[in-house]
Write a structure and sequence with these properties.
With 301 residues, this protein is of the alpha/beta class. Helix content is 47%, strand content 17%. The longest helix is centred in the N-terminal third of the chain and has 21 residues, at 79-99.
């Protein structure tokens, strides 16, 4: 018997139209006996970048911080000097915006500074390298499996589907994880799984109720017999593996929206496959879509 923990996080927003063209829900499943190894490998990378106690939020890490470009010889400073200079710049900017009495701008500025403060001692290229190192490491985990649903909201009709975008994505993740658990069982040995979900307050209650329904009635595609309990919702800052699921969802969305492949290429190696066909990751889009996900999903099918 094997037990898998599937860590789930999202990228983009499920609202239509919202501020993203796609909504991506991704789950990275690892055997429970591999958790310490996986956590340790990621920890060893982030420690080298001075982020041992920081949350890894890929989207915020990979933004360009304008302050860094305005500090003379920023790249040549040591990490303590970089942090000091950026924080001084930001403090002055907060005071400047406060005098403008622009409440919206002031709120956005504070949010941006709070979300990125942990990473300001790293240059943009270092932050890119950090995320690539982690993606390449995860891509080499032959025992991990990636499940994801990437929904192009221009092609999704919630009225016809009788479910919202995030409900559709969650049902897909659960169905694909359940099938993987069944398909990898050996004779007389059953696999079981558990979902650990980022604690997004807007969907936690809804996904809990959905999971109860799946346990009672199954999904549209399968009975749910191997996944235990309702999802356990945790703050992403508390568990590194949810942060890795965040990276997976970000990488998938940035690939299908912008064609970015630096993180997508290694992480997509972990997509669940049956022989050569990708069955764990779906791109819900136009029938003629030629992206790597759609091509791999149609291969040999």
């Amino acid at each position: 018997m094997s037990t898998y923990v599937c860590y789930v996080d999202e990228s983009g927003v499920p609202e239509i139209p919202g501020n993203s063209s796609h909504f991506v829900l991704a789950g990275l499943a690892i055997p429970i006996e591999r958790w310490r190894e996986a956590d340790g490998r990621v920890a060893s990378i982030v420690e080298r970048y001075g982020l041992a106690n920081a949350e890894l939020h890929t989207a915020w890490m990979l933004r360009k911080y304008i302050e860094q470009s305005r500090i003379n010889d920023f790249d040549s400073l040591n990490r303590d000097q970089r942090r000091s200079e950026v924080l001084k710049f930001r403090t002055a900017e907060v005071y400047r915006v406060r005098k403008l009495e622009d409440a919206k701008r002031n709120s956005e500025l504070k949010k941006n500074y709070k979300k990125t403060e942990a990473y300001v001692h790293l240059t943009y290229s270092e932050r890119q390298q950090l995320t690539r190192e982690i993606a390449q490491t995860v891509g080499g985990w032959g025992w991990a499996r990636l499940f994801a649903d990437c929904i192009d909201k221009a092609h999704f009709d919630p009225v016809r589907a009788r479910r919202s975008v995030d409900e559709e994505a969650f049902e897909q993740i659960i169905s694909r994880f359940q099938r993987f658990l069944e398909n990898t069982e050996s004779e007389g040995q059953q696999n079981f799984g558990l979902i650990i979900h980022d604690n997004n307050q807007t969907i936690s209650a809804k996904h809990t109720q959905l999971m109860r329904k799946f346990h009672a009635e199954g999904t549209l595609w399968t009975h749910v017999t191997r996944i235990m309990e309702t999802p356990l919702f945790v703050g992403s800052e508390l568990t590194r593996m949810v942060q890795i699921a965040d990276m997976c969802s970000y990488a998938l969305r940035r690939y299908i929206e912008n064609g970015e492949t630096a993180l997508f290429e290694p992480l997509f190696q972990r997509a669940d496959r049956v022989r050569q066909t990708v069955v764990g990751v779906r791109h819900f889009s136009a029938a003629a879509c030629t992206c790597r996900i759609c091509a791999a999903h149609r291969q040999a099918s």
